[in-house]
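I would like you to sit down with the record closing this message with an eye to the fold:
=====
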Amino acid sequence: MSSKESSKDKKKPELLHAEKEFYVLEITNLNRTIARLRTVCAELENENDDCKKKYKTLDQDRNDVIAYLKKSLTQKQDEIVDFTNRLEAMLKEKKTEIQKFETKIQEMERKYNDMSSTLTAEITLLNGKLNSLEEFKLQKDCMIKKYLDLEETLKKEAERHLEKETIIENQSLIHKESMRLDIEKKLLNLSINLQKDTQYRIAETTQNVVKENIALNNELNLIIVSWQKLFDQNEFLKNRLKTLSNEIDVSFETKDNLLRRHVIQKEIIDRLVTKQQEMMSKFHTLKNCMTNASLLRKKVKEYSKKANDANVKYRKIEGAFHAQSIQLAELKTAFDELKLHNFKLEERIKESVIIIKDVIGLGLRRQKDPFSISEQDEYSTRINLLNTLLKLFDDVSLFATGEAISIEGSNESLLVSDWKRKVSSQHLIPCDSEPSIVDEMQ
């Protein structure tokens, strides 16, 4: 019996030493996996911080872009409304002005036609009067020439008549003197003859003297009648000259009046021409206003097109924002899943730490009091603890989506590169840092 007990006592420390080495190796492997998980968590936290910063910047940029686009869209809409109101007001004003100008143009055309017809009639009359005035000028020139010729002839005749009168007066005086002398001679002769003749011849001489006196009186009467005729003709020519001069003055006055009227009518025609030019300039300004209105319409159409483009862009941005919000929701769900996965990992690691502590505690209790726990109980508890550890790691490997976490003795490996790529591509926000398990173990 003693030999069996001694052999058993020898086997027990060997088993304890092997189990201790096994557990130490397991603990080192677990510490390595925990360290690797910590590095992965740190990298995920860094990527989470970067993703948070990028998300904040993207959110700020998106908000700024959306605010700017909304502001620009409201400004464009206000500008479009303002332009449409201004265009409607300008179109109404243009319509009223066009109607006014059309009525004015019609009135001015009617007045212009009336004035042109009246002025053409008056111009024809004036042309006729001018032609008549030219004929009158010709007749006037002819009459003036005739008048001058008559004046010259009258002067010549007056001079000739004066000469004749002087000659006749001289002749009459000479004739009277001669007659007187003859009469005196005859009287002397008669006196002599009277003395010589008798009273029988007195009657014959008296009769001859009476006859000669009658003849002289008749000649004097003829001279007086011819002089009176010449005087009357001279007076008639003077009166005719006065009437002709008056007619010439009247013709000059009528000519001046006609010229004044012609000048006034010419001024009226010039005013009408200037008014017509002003109306034409206003009409051209109206045409320019119409062209400006068409240009403004084109600009309004362009602004409306720009507004539609801006609306389309805004809708695109809203679609992109909606897509980003959907992507953000997906990322949040993925983040929640990752957080839950990390939480479950943390729980499993805590449970594994507790199990490892229990295993280490069993070894310490065995060292302190070797008879407190039997070998079978210790072995069964260790096997149970190892089974629970294996189950925990099996559960952890089930939680890893798209990765494989394998623990193979001393050459264990943690494959989390796929998960990191997925997190970095989707800009996930991982959970907070894990508590240090090594500190708890220590």
Q: What stands out?
A: Residues 15-66+325-441 form one domain. The chain has two domains: 15-66+325-441, 95-297. The helical segments are 2-196, 202-368, 375-399, 417-426, 437-441. The first helix runs from residue 2 to 196.
